[in-house]
Amino acid sequence: MSASASPAVTTIEIQLKDGKVSPNGDRVDLNQGDQFVLDITSDRDDEVHVHGFDKGIEVSAGQHVRVPMTADRTGRFEVESHHPELLIVVLQIR
Ligand SMILES: [Cu+2]
Fold first, then answer.
1. What is the CA(49)–ligand 1 centre distance, in A?
2. Domain CATH for 23
3. Ligand 1 centre from 91 Cα, in Å?
4. pLDDT, tens digit (0-9, with 9 covering 90-100), for 17-66
5. What is the dihedral angle through the alpha carbons of 93, 87, 82, 52, rounded to the nearest 10 degrees?
6. How far apart are CA 5 and CA 75, in angstroms?
7. What pTM, to 2 d.p., does this model score?
8. DSSP class per residue in 13-81
9. Ligand 1 centroid vs 1 CA: distance in angstroms?
10. For residue 60, what are the domain limits?
C-alpha cells in the first residue's frame, strides 16, 4: 500500500424518521484531517446540528441531503437533531 494514499471519506448515513433518529448515539472515530459526509434523509422538517463546528443543516420532509465536511479540529462533538432534540452520533476526532 502506498503511504501517500489519500484518506478515505467516511459516509455517515443519518435517518430522521417517525420522530426518531438513526443512528442513535453511536460513536464515529475520525482522524484530524479526514473528510466525512453527512448523508441525511428525513421525513420531517428539522435541523441537524454539528456541535463544535457551528454547523446547522436545515432538512425538509422528504429531502435527502449530502453535506461534505472536514474533520479539521480534534475533540468530541455531538451531532443532534433539534425537533425533537435527539443525539444522532458523537464524532470522536483525534
Ligand atoms: Cu444542537
1. 5
2. 2.60.40.420
3. 14
4. 999 999 999 999 999 999 999 999 999 999 999 999 999 999 999 999 99
5. -20
6. 24
7. 0.90
8. EEEEETTEEES-SEEEEE-TT-EEEEEEEESS-EEEEETTTTEEEEE-TT-EEEEEEE--S-EEEEEEE
9. 40
10. 2-93
